[in-house]
Amino acid sequence: MRGIVVGVKGSVESDEALDWALAEAASRQVPLTAALAVASDDPEELERRRAVVQDVLDRARERTGSTIEASAEVVHGPAADALLEASADADMLVLGRRDRGRLGRLVLGSVSSRIVEHATVPVTVVRHHDTPGEEDAPHESEGPATVVAGVDTSPPSVAALRHAGEVAARTGAVLEAVFAWQITTLAPLPGSWGWAPPLDDYERFARECLAAAVERSGVDLPEERLRQRVEHGAPARVLLEASRTAERLVVGARGLGGFERLVLGSVSRQALDYASCPVTVVRR
Question: Where are the transmembrane segments (predicted)?
Answer without folding.
Answer: none
